[in-house]
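Reviewers asked in the last cycle whether our approach scales beyond single polypeptides. To address this, we selected a multi-component target totalling 260 residues and predicted its structure end to end. The input consisted of the following lines:
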Amino acid sequence: MLTYALIIFAIGALGGLYLASHVLREKLAPWPVSLLHAALGAIGLLLVIYAALTHGISHAALTALIILIVAALGGFYLASIHLRSAIAPKPVVFVHAGVAIIGFLTLLGAVTGIF
Amino acid sequence: MRFLGHPVHPMLVHFPIVLWTIAVIAYVANAAGMIEAADEIAEYSNGAGLIMALLAMTAGGFELRTIDSRSEAMRVATSHMMFMAVVWFCFLAALLLQVSPGRSASPLVVASCAIAGFLLMIAGARLGGRLVYDFGVAVKSQSKP
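The resulting structure, written as structure tokens, was:
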């Protein structure tokens, strides 16, 4: 289950990079990609939560879940800016991406057994 | 991001390029059943490549600050970034398939992931080269007296 979550987060991350590339060029990101990115992030989180509730997950995976939830909160804030048809501030995008990458790598470590 | 006055990103990018090139050769050799230790060589060089690439990408992210947001260079830089992210995930997929429990993935599938990543890496590296040679990113500021 965590591997599926990892794959979904990876695809979502590519969508996030595409969105970030628009912000870096001071352009408004396309809505469909933004929605897809959010949906993939939500599905990934739900899979990790489902795994935690049904099979139980390691401490590393639980840490990853918490970090990814924090990243998701940043994503909600960015979505609220997008809703106002404004371009998100670059520092917020970098922090959101940075936290999400740390969460992804922690989950990767948990899946591969490194942590 | 600079070290002793030199941009760090170009210093670091050589490591994943070399490590992933070795990994691709080892994956192909493993799929062809040519070298006994190829599987292990591929695993370690790919893993090291993934780690070094993360460091290179972080340094590259800092370089973005030096590029004008609305310039053609930024468009190329973001494309370069996208390409290299896909490359990273291709090599990650190869490693995960390789170390999957029971090693259920065929060596040919694993090698295919790595080859796809390698080809995309060449395309992404070309964009990185354009940033330096066509737009002078991290070069022009150095040449100022």
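Chain A has four helices and no strands. We regard this as preliminary and will revisit it once experimental data from Aim 1 are available.
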